[in-house]
Amino acid sequence: MTAAEVIEGFLKGNPGKCFCDDCLSSTLAIQPRQQVQQKTSRMTRSAFFGRRPGECDNCHRAKLVACYGVPTEVVALSKRHAQPRSVAPTLPEPSRSHQSEPGDQTRPWYWEGNVVAALLGYLEGEGWKIVRIANTATKERGVDIEAAMDGRKLLVEVKGYPLKGYSDPRRVHGVKPTSQTLQAGHWYSHAVLTAMRLQTKHPDAIVLLAFADFPRYRSLFEETRHALEKMGIGMMFVQENGHVVVLHHWNS
Questions:
Q1: Do 74 and 148 belong to one domain?
Q2: Which of 9-23, 82-96, 202-216, 235-249 is predicted most confidently?
Q3: Among 140, 163, 169, 232, which residue has the least CB neighbours within 10 Å?
Q4: What is the dihedral sign for C-alpha 185, 247, 114, 191?
């Protein structure tokens, strides 16, 4: 059986219960842990699987959790109105910021939403509780990731890497006038400015930058490393396999 089939079978065997990636990884002996995160993110394409912030039924910690199941009252309602059985899983109604799981395996790994998904897994593994996630797909304004631990607040500004073409289906055959390298430079500059503004607005918070791991971003980081260190802004890079590389630790 594949890892995805093992996870799916376990969740189906525990309908209505929710489990975090750490517990799924240890219980099902699936390593590395990032593999579990990738598989559960893909499962959310089904209406019967859910993945969102909640309490794990195994470790009882507040994390991103995955579950399987359909509420009885929702099924009854769908039958009464002869609607397709496409309903939400058995989880409390999330806040607006959490209604969409950031990962999307139909997009490139370096799409911002997939970078966010990898970071969520890493931060949770470090003990951070995810408070808020901005919806990348709808380009929701605000901090990309907000987390908390032991009275500390963490604010993360995330950037993926520019696509070669347009993601809009209406412009799929169009050619971007700006190169990926040049656009990445603009994105990096915007992210640094956003981080500086966040530090000014939230002086007691830990501010972190995170990028998809590309040579262009690595080069820009080296050019600005000293300034970022002076400002106390952390830096991380997310690799294609979901591994998170810390090049500059944030203040703790």
A1: no
A2: 202-216
A3: 169
A4: negative
